[in-house]
């Protein structure tokens, strides 16, 4: 994120942030850099979906950007994520940092 955006929300490089919209929410580490324009949050790639608990809308602790995007394909041929309209907000995460459980496999959600 841009340094001006980070400063406005009290975020420093390396802080844990909650990124969210009406589709979902996730945790990600902040990388503050003037390489990003103001108003842009970039989530390059996360891990598989790792919800904090089994409740609908639970925060994704592994930073999977698919949590925030529309569930529609980019085309009939390429079934990739269509993320051109992914508007989000972000804030410094104030909760207890969840444990890293990535090495045990994903939680199955039914």
Distance between the termini: 34 Å
* Number of DSSP E strands: 3
Q: What portion of residues is helical?
A: under 10%
> Main sheet: which strands, in order across?
2-1-3
Q: Averaged pLDDT, please?
A: 88
Element pattern in H and E = HEEE
Strand content: 5-15%
Low-confidence stretches: none
Give the domain tally: 1
Number of helices: 1
CATH topology, anyone? Barwin-like endoglucanases
Rg, please? 15 Å
At CATH's second level, what is the architecture?
Beta Barrel
Largest sheet data: 3 strands, antiparallel
Global structural class:
mainly beta
State the name of the first-level CATH class.
Mainly Beta
Give the CA-based shape: globular
What secondary-structure arrangement, pairings included, does this model have?
Layout: H1 3-8, E1 16-20, E2 25-29, E3 89-92
Antiparallel strand pairs: 1-2, 1-3
């Amino acid at each position: 994120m841009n340094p001006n955006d980070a400063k406005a929300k009290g975020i420093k490089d390396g802080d844990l942030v909650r990124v969210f919209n009406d589709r979902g929410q996730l945790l990600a580490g902040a990388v503050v850099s003037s390489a990003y324009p103001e108003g842009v949050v970039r989530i390059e790639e996360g891990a598989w979906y790792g919800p904090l608990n089994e409740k609908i809308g639970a925060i994704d602790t592994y930073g999977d950007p698919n949590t925030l995007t529309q569930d529609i394909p980019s085309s009939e041929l390429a079934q990739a994520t269509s993320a051109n309209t992914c508007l989000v907000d972000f804030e410094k995460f104030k909760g207890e940092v969840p444990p890293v459980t990535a090495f045990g496999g994903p939680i199955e959600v039914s």
